[in-house]
Here is the input.
Amino acid sequence: MSDHHQLTRIEPLDPCAPVCCPFCRHVVLREDAEETSVDPCPHTLFIATDEGFEFRSGRYDALKGIVGVEDQSIPLDGHGWDGYTDQLCCPGAVKIALYTPAPSGLGCYVGFAP
Here is the structure.
């Protein structure tokens, strides 16, 4: 079995709903008309968009081998941030992928692990 199967990917129907940690239920990402608030909990591995990371935990950096590496230096290998964050070997990890409707069409990706 491939290690990539250890990541469970969830795509909620409402991309505007707050993102809660599946382990502790803490709201880590909330968007409203004025702003986006990011408040990682201890289970949050990363919060990323199609433009790069908003948050990376030390644990995530260690798992991916990118400790001290800036976003622009991370090799995406043509997969973009969505594909890159899918490639995670961490037992019990969950990734929530949100896609904003047109015209922006931006993706937001939040990873958690127990």
Summary: The chain has a mean pLDDT of 89. Residues 3-112 form one domain. The longest helix spans residues 58-64. Residues 43 and 112 are 5 Å apart (CA to CA).
